[in-house]
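Let us work through a complete example step by step.
Step 1: write down the sequence.
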Amino acid sequence: MAEGQKQERIDLSLQQLAAARKATETVAALLEQKLHGYTEVLRPILLPAHPARSPGMHLGGDKGLSDLKDRYRTFAEKRLNLPKDFEPGWLDELGTKLEFRRWEYSHELETGNQKQVIQITSPARWLVYYGPGLHLAQAAAAFSNREEKNVTSLRQFLVNALAFAALVRRNGGLTALLHALHYRLEVIEYPLLHNLPVVVISAEIPSFLPPDDVIQTAIAFSGVPAFIEVLDLHAIEALRDPFKTDIAQALGVTP
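Step 2: predict the structure and record it as C-alpha cells.
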C-alpha cells in the first residue's frame, strides 16, 4: 500500500527461492507470534483505559493534548474536510485492540521491454494501529477520496492514529524495551494517508528481493501480481544482544 521503495537485492535461482520462501514463512510466523505476545504484555501502556480523563499520563499533559488538537485540525480541516473542532471525549473512543498489517508497497518490474507494477509485502514489518474500526485499506481509500466517507469512522481513525503516535513518541522506554527484544518501534509519515503519522514495528532481520526476472517467473507461476520479500536468515548470526552490548560498554571492552 505504500509507495515504491528501494530494497536490497540478492541473486537467487528459482530453486533457491523456493527453499528461501518456505524458511521465510516459518520465521515470519514465529516473529509475528512473538510480537503479538510482547504487545499483549504491554497492553496497559499501548491501550490506556480512559485516556481522556488522564491526558497528562498518556499524551504529555496540556501541551501534549494541545499538540494533538493542532495535528487533528491540520488533517481534518485541510485534507479530509472533517469537523475541525477536536473533542477530548473522542479519546475515550480509542480502539480496544491492536491491529497488525504487514507493510506493503508497489514495485515496478522491468523485464526486457515490459513493465509491470506489482505489490510487495515485507514479512517482518508491520503497521500497527488501534481497532476495531476502519481497516487501513478503507482509510487509505477514504483519504484519497476513492470512496464515500463515513465521517464518524474516519474521524475516529484519524484520532486513533494521532493519539497512538503521540503515545509512542513520548514513551521512549517502549522503543528501548522492544529493541532489547530485537524489534524496532518507530513512528513514520505514511504517504497514502497524507503523511499521517503511523506506528511501525519491524523485526531486526533484514529482507531482500531477488532479481526482477526471478520475481517475474515466480508471479507467472502463481498468477498473482504480488510477491513477499525474502528474509535474510544469514543475518541472524550478526544479531547483537543489547544486554550483552551494554555490559561490555560499561566495562569499556569491545562486545
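Step 3: interpret the result. The chain has a mean pLDDT of 87.
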